[in-house]
Amino acid sequence: MTMTGTAFPKFSLPNQDGKTMTLNDFAGKWLVVYVYPKDDTPGCTIQGQSFTATKSQFDDANIAVVGLSQDDVASHKNFCNKFSFKIDLLSDVDAKLLKALNVGQSEFKGNMYWDRTTFVVDPKGIVQKTYLKVNPNGHEQVLLQDIKAMRG
User: What's the total number of domains in the chain?
Assistant: First the structure.
């Protein structure tokens, strides 16, 4: 499942504040869309905290970062408030974007979860890199280095 070189699917999804966000909101910027399994779980918390801690580095590099899961807006809001996240979490309760992205699923303790996957989208909306089965520890630094290298 690689989407490198293809257009990132158009979307219209609410963030943790219920504000609708679309792909057009990020035109002209690099965009990191990280798919995570579930709000308020250990690995997902590490990712949210890591991206929040490095948000200024992403902002300085003109890179937007958004999280994506199937959790609803209220769950996202609680998750953001609990850990003081400063990034947007998009709610895809119908899994339309997750399915369009062809994100894999894995079973954990009898439940199906979306695999931790990250997409790097260039300012024109083209997927430049896809990371599968992401390890949340240090992933944000890998992304910063890789995107800077892609820019040349």
Answer: 1
pLDDT at 2: 58
CB 39 within 8 A of CB 71: yes
For residue 17, tell me if it sits in a domain: no
Determine the structural domain holding residue 111 and report its residue range: 26-151
**What CATH number does the domain containing 90 carry?**
3.40.30.10
pLDDT digits (tens, 9 = 90+) for 35-93: 999 999 888 999 999 999 999 999 999 999 999 999 999 999 999 999 999 999 999 99
First to last CA, the chain: 26
Q: Which of 44, 64, 68, 103 is catalytic?
A: 44
Mark whether 44 is an active-site residue: yes
Query: Distance of CA 126 to CAs 36, 115, 121, Å?
Result: 21, 21, 5
DSSP letter, residue 8: P
